[in-house]
Amino acid sequence: MNAxxxxxxxxxxIALRPIKLRDQRVWRDVNRxxxxxxxxxxxxxxxxSPSGPxxxxxxxxxxxxxxxAEAHAGRMLPFVIExxxxxxxxxxxxGITWGSMCSGHIGYWVDEAVAGxxxxxxxxxxxxxxxxxxxxxxxxxxxxxxxxxxSRRVVEKLGFREEGLRPRYLHIDGAWxxxxxxxxxxxxxxxxxxxxxxxxxxGSAHK
Length: 207
What we know:
The chain contains six helices and eight strands; from the N terminus they run ββαααβββαβαββα. By secondary structure, it is of the alpha+beta class. α4 crosses α5. The protein is globular and about 50 Å long.
């Protein structure tokens, strides 16, 4: 078991904790309620090629078991997001690579009912600080469809650099979609991402 997982992270009303099998009912309820809000940005499975294997979306239990195995192998950090004690979303640090790269990428979604309350920027800030300080990563990426204005606002508020466009990068909502790449290295946030967010957050008492 690696020393940086499992872990819980929190700032005020917002917390990250490992996803669990017993989250299934609430996780499904939140997803069902947000179908129209989330569908345009969800990863999908491309049609199989004539010689390729047929793949299916995993069940919740299969998903959690896969995420746990990847976490224990040091390749992923699979969190759920809680707001005031209620599950409201998911944040995963995936693609963790060591050696000369020491990098990972973050993906996330949140309940539309709590959008605009600073939940997602705070969650991303917590995850970035953990990755840089406890895990030992050097670089974090977030890849977002150009049309996904809410997700773009999250990384812009946190000061991620926009690095360019990856054409037809991921299969999202039934087709290969372009994604903008946003990134940060540890040297760019020496004070910590959460400290930066507290400083720039509208109405923050930390300014």
